[in-house]
Amino acid sequence: MYEIFEKLLxxxxxxxxxxxxxxxxxxxTLSDWKNGRSTPKQDKMLKxxxxxxxxLNYMMGIVKEIDMTMQFDSDEEAMLYLDIMSSIxxxxxxxxxxxxxxxxxxxxxxxxxxxxxRNILNAAHSRTDIEPTDDEMKNDDDIMNDKDx
Length: 149
Prior knowledge:
With 149 residues, this protein is mainly α. The protein has helices at 2-11, 16-23, 27-34, 42-52, 56-59, 75-89, 93-108, 117-125, 134-145. It is elongated, with a radius of gyration of 18 Å.
């Protein structure tokens, strides 16, 4: 993730000191991140993303486009999202596939799903550079409708 931060620093012609001063994040936190000693906590990652006008997905390297935006109802929701995405980042491919299966299952349950299930599935597929095929979308629909899942 630091590589993305470094690209933002360069593209905005900013220094660690300037970002630290403007965001209120201690310079030592950013320096430790640069030197691989630590990664900023969720609240600081959120401040950095907001400072540069990018999404958390972009900061975490999940998406390549800067112009994607995420809307959260609260800071708590944004922090929860960041925590989940940080955990997913630690998974291997098999773990991500299992996570996707489980998320599809949760979406199928009315008490957990937003109204627009199709957009959630598209968001899961948007982690790749490949658009989901009709067969993949049908498979997702089958999983969502499988009561024994």
